[in-house]
Structures are given as structure tokens and as C-alpha cells.
Write a structure and sequence with these properties.
The chain is mainly beta. 0% of the residues lie in helices and 50% in strands. It contains no helices and eleven strands. Strand 4 (36-42) and strand 5 form a beta hairpin.
């Protein structure tokens, strides 16, 4: 069983920055090395959307709406996933979730509880 815990959300003004973190844990010997990790967002009344993913090979993927503004990264030693967000705008307001699975695919097996990001004008 894998546990994911997000942190770093908050309220910022448009144009501001935030860095989200996701701490992954599991049974003895657990590691995120080689696994796909991703960030997803869900705004009120909308479906969950994939924001960014980073494969076990460290290949990255970004949604068009965040390219050039968000950077996903991972620390396989610390079992941490990060999302650096800059130039935030109102449309970035959402609950952000991290997820993990063996492969980068539409559905992920493990999910965190989410951290709220609110951007105001």
C-alpha cells in the first residue's frame, strides 16, 4: 500500500508562485524510483484534469495550459514529488492531487488527499 500526502497549497494573488510537495510512503523498502508520478487538478464543478507527469525515466509531460509555468520534479531518495508553479492565474484555482502508478497512464492506482490552491486577482 502506498500513501501520498500533498502539502504546499494556499492562497496567492494572480502572478504569484507556489511549490507543492507530495510525500510518498509505503512498506519497508518502499521507493518511488521507477514509478510514474503525476499532479492532477480539480476545480469546483469540473472534472479532474492531468496537470503534469514524470515517468520513472524522468520524462515529463505537461498540460498545454501550464507549459512554461509549472515544473514537475522528483526526488527518488526522499520519495518526494514536487510541482513548482509560477505566474499563477485564476484558472489555476483547484484542488491539486498527486498520484502514483507503475506507468504513466490515464488511471492511477494511488492518490493523495489533495491540497487547495486558490488564486485571486
Amino acid at each position: 500500500q502506498v500513501q501520498l500526502q500533498e502539502s504546499g497549497g494556499g492562497s496567492v494573488q494572480s502572478g504569484g508562485s507556489l511549490k507543492l510537495s507530495c510525500a510518498a510512503s509505503g512498506a519497508s523498502g518502499f521507493t518511488i524510483r521507477g514509478y510514474c508520478m503525476g499532479w492532477f487538478s480539480q476545480a469546483p464543478g469540473k472534472e479532474r484534469e492531468r496537470v503534469a507527469t514524470i515517468a520513472g525515466t524522468s520524462n515529463t509531460w505537461y498540460a498545454d495550459s501550464v507549459k512554461g509555468r509549472f515544473t514537475i520534479s522528483r526526488d527518488n531518495i526522499k520519495n518526494m514529488l514536487y510541482l513548482q508553479m509560477i505566474s499563477l492565474n485564476n484558472e489555476d484555482t483547484a484542488m491539486y492531487y498527486c498520484a502514483e502508478d507503475r506507468w504513466c497512464q490515464p488511471e492511477y492506482k494511488y492518490w493523495g488527499q489533495g491540497t487547495q490552491v486558490s488564486v485571486s486577482s
